[in-house]
Every structure is written in structure tokens, then in C-alpha cells.
Amino acid sequence: MSRISPFLPLTLGLCLPLSVWGFEHFQPLPKAVQQPADNPASTEKISLGKKLFFDPALLGTNSTLSCNSCHKLSTGGVDGKTVSRGQHGQYTYRSTPTLWNIGFQTVLYWDGRSRSLEEQTLDHLRDPVISDNAHIGAMVQRLMDAEDYRQAFEAAFPGEDAVSADNVARALASFERSLLTPDSPFDQYIRGDENAISASARRGMVLFNDSGCASCHFGVNFAGPAPGPAMGPGDGFYELFPNHLGSRYDEQYGLADDLGRFEATGNLREKYMWRVPILRNIAVTAPYFHNGRVKTLDEAVRVMAKTQLGKEFSDGEVQDIVAFLNSLTGRMAPP
Amino acid sequence: MSRISPFLPLTLGLCLPLSVWGFEHFQPLPKAVQQPADNPASTEKISLGKKLFFDPALLGTNSTLSCNSCHKLSTGGVDGKTVSRGQHGQYTYRSTPTLWNIGFQTVLYWDGRSRSLEEQTLDHLRDPVISDNAHIGAMVQRLMDAEDYRQAFEAAFPGEDAVSADNVARALASFERSLLTPDSPFDQYIRGDENAISASARRGMVLFNDSGCASCHFGVNFAGPAPGPAMGPGDGFYELFPNHLGSRYDEQYGLADDLGRFEATGNLREKYMWRVPILRNIAVTAPYFHNGRVKTLDEAVRVMAKTQLGKEFSDGEVQDIVAFLNSLTGRMAPP
Prior knowledge:
The structure is a homodimer.
Chain A: H1 8-13, H2 43-54, H3 67-70, H4 117-126, H5 136-145, H6 147-156, H7 165-177, H8 185-190, H9 199-210, E1 238-240, H10 248-252, H11 261-265, E2 273-275, H12 297-309, H13 315-326
Antiparallel strand pairs in A: 1-2
Helix pairs in contact in A: 2-6, 2-7, 4-7, 9-13, 12-13
């Protein structure tokens, strides 16, 4: 897998500041997500998906939750909880990940066990903790019975059988692929505005790159390759966490309690393997890690340095890296 | 789809009694099940699958259940309950179907939502009602730690990573494909022994054929096409049930409460669609139907006549059909 950015010629052409040299696998946010051949986006699909996303009725007649309850778009695409709660107060499996820029991920869930947004959405709709529908057919029937939804489905999926569980998933996935956060200070900087980020953030960016963070956190989402020539949807980019077992953080934050992909696949070689998570907007998506046990970004950086790199950063270094991570927060406005 | 039996030349060659003419889509039980290309059976796999099937430890350290608890091979492959109970007394989704001759089905579950025995087995192993493992990885770890299992896996799956969730599913599926019930009176009859079934059973066979039961209940398992040229594994054979809604049985036995495939797929055209169930050994697999609400075979025949064919059979006709169904019970001995 090549880590050379396809955007390098573009960024060079934009009179790149010298400080960006050497960051060839840092990438600005593209204007759009690559669409799957079997579910290309359309205005009608995105509009329907948005309606479904915010509607608690999707998840049951008496549902107290919509998709937006946990993946709250106005607060970074997360709900700020350690672990979200389901329809009847049950805990969900892991901490809710953000949906902003999710279309640049090749697999879904912390452990990457789902290979497309469509598949992951159907999985959620069938999850008895998340959905209060008796079954997925009851959900479809209710949408079918609602005149406004029937029309919206027919517009989004012309032809017969427009209202179906698959089409609910397709519309939601199209909407989610439209959730982009452009114009972060980092993007402005990497596109040529030298003053878009502070001196501290620039030092943090160098440290992030040189100390090894960027070995895994590279690419559009600082989460490995986005769907494209190097890696298709469904091909996950996984790393070991904790990479160095045995630090004080294991017990303090229960880092070794969850076996990651192994819990999904039963493959012994996938113990403690995780999908590399998105760092864009990380400053506004606390708490951190799959179990949501770390509350601040400072502490998350210290934990990562220790468990992944076997390093202890100084207070000043932590501050610089956090300043860099703060620069990854973009403009969040649902389409 | 052709309903002409590939066994016709064979049965003809065996000096077929005249009474069998006209039953060209009734088929004797083949000697073996067609094996999937990616998981051909072996003695080692079947032996490992058998060990796993009867071992409660597969489903959790303190599991009270093995596969055999619900799919009890010594009692027709079922537990005789309306709906089986899970690890902690929870009800399972529907009545447990038999595993005898299951390898001749193209899809699994009452609604056919699983496309292979391997897929269905993994689904069961991950089901929190059925499995008491914290996660599927915990199950693999325990098998890995048990010397006898590790050796059995290495024998069944030579090469590295022999112990895995996928291989648990492969071994169980291979074992299940070996569960055949040969030498039923029906098989002896159709192969040429005129006295293998009673006169009443012979009348029942004619009535079963002529009144329309055999329109859906044909083929090896009297459940539609087995995997073969006409239909591959994963291509389900589905029918509407109840076909005639509105009979007294709908309320009496809750027949309209479960929407069948629609509940799994959300496809409105699949409301009340079901995989045609196996009739081999039906006399020893009470109670009947997906919800296990009908206790006797007599009553099941009356319900089917009314809901599927819009008919009422006389007592004598019911008796004859039941005599025929009784002749479908074969010899049950796990390999």
C-alpha cells in the first residue's frame, strides 16, 4: 500500500509553505466521498436519509431515540457519553464514534466488523438495544403507511418496492456520506495559508509526524487509507492497541478488557486489533477510545504515546500535539 | 425449475411398483449430501463437529446447553418444546427445526434468512440468547486452551490457525451434513418394496400428491429442491403461509402473528413467506409450525389443508395422509 498522497501535485501547485514538506501522507479533505457503484448518492436519497436520521419514529412507535441521539451532529457527531444507552437504558457495546467524514472510512465500527455503511445501518436497525421495532418489517410497514415517507422513497428510488429495509439503509448511508467537515485550520494550512494554525500547532504537527503517530494516523481522516485505489470499501486498516501492554493505563482505563476484532472474528491473531479511528474533529468528540474512559484530549495523547510508542511526552509536547489536533476541527453543517 | 426427479431412471430400474407412477417429484433419500466447495467434509471434520455439537462448554464456561439440547438428535432432532429456551430461560425466536437431513435444504431458519449451515452456525454462536460466551473470541480461546480440541482442530484443518470461529462453524456444518435418516418405509417403498407401507399410507400418498400438498412439499426432504442443478445453496424455496388468511386457525394458533421472511428482510412482498419445511421424520418432530402451537400431526394436516388449499379433509383422509407422513420416518443414528 502506497502512502504517497494523490493530492501532492495539487498541494504543490497551490504554493505550499515549506513547513508542509515531509508530510506527504497528510491529506486535505476531498470535496466529496467516493460513492459505491450500487448506491450512488442523489439529492433525493440524501434528503430522505436526513429525514430518517433525525426521526425517532424510524426506531419504533414509541422510540425515544433517533440516529441523531447518539451520533449527534450538532455536537461533533457524538453524544459525549462514555457509552451510549439504548431504547430501554441498556448500554451499547462501545463508545459512539462520530459520523462526520465517516464516508472516508473503509470499514465501520471500532472493530471494523461491518464492511459498508449500508450493512452497518441494517445491523443497527436490527439491533434490539438500538431499535425498538418488533422487527425490521414493522419499520418498513410504518414507513409505507406514512404518505410523506412513501413519496420520499418513490422519489429517491424510482420504480416499484421503493420502501424497503435495504432502501432505508441506502438513504441513510447516502446521507452519512454527505457529512463532511471542510475548511478546518489544518486544511487551510495544508492548502497554503501559513497563518491558519498556531506555531504550537505547527510544532505539534512535526512531532505528530516524526514521533510515529502518523505511521497509523495518516490519510484523509488520519485513520489510514480512504476508499480509493489503495484500499476498497471493506478492506479495513487495523492496528494493535495497546501496542505495548503492561503500562499503568491498562488498569486505569481498562484498556486490556476489550479484545477488539478478536471479539468479532474469533481470530486469535486479531486480539487487540482495532480499526484506526478518525482524528478529524477529535477535539470535539470526547470522551476517547473504544470504551470512552479517557475524558480529555491531553490524557488521550499521553495514553497513546505510552501504549503505542512506548514514549512519555513532556507537557509542552502534549500541548503542541493537542494544538495540532485542535486544528483538525472543520465546519459542521449537515447538508 | 424442473420438478422432474433425477432419480426417476434409477427408481424405474428398481422394478418400481405401479402405484409410484405419477409421483415423479418424490425422491428417495440420497446416500450423501452435496458438499460445498469451500468446506468439503472429512472424517476428522465430522468427528470434531460431533464433539462440539454435544459439548455444552462450546456455548460458555457455565453453559447449560449444547447444540444437542434443542436439536436433540435422539428425539428427532428437536426438543419437543413449543419454542426452545436459551441460556438464561429466555425464549428463542421460533420453534426449533430438526437437523436430520438438514444438508438437503438450500437455506436455513424458518424464514430462510441464512444461506449456509456455516453462516447459520456462526449466527447461533454469536446469539446472546443461545450462547453464554462473552464473545465469540472467548469461545475460540477456550478451545485453543484445551489440548484435545487443539489436536482435533489441527487434524481437521491442517495448517496454521486451525482453531478459529470459522472452523468451528465448518466442523459443525460438516457434522450436520452427515445427519441422514435412510431406510424410511417410504424409501423402501419407492425403491420397490410394495409392502413397506400400509394401504392407508399408499392412499395418503396419492391424496398428498393429488390434492396439492406435493406442489410445495416435493423433492428429497418434501421441502422443495435440494442443492443441485435446479437450485444452489442459498437459493431458498419459499411459499405463502397462511395462503388463505382468515380461517379459524389464524386466531386459534396465532398463524398471522408472525410475518415470516418479511420480519427478516423488510420486503413487503415477503410477508407471510416461509421456507417450505422438511417433512421427513415429521411424525417424531412435534410440535408443528414455526410457532410450535399445533401439538398433533392430525391437526397439522387439517390446518395445512384449510390454510394452504382451502380444503377440509374427512377424518379418513386425514388418517391416510398421517399414515403416509408416518412412513417418512427413517433410521436416526448420528455418525
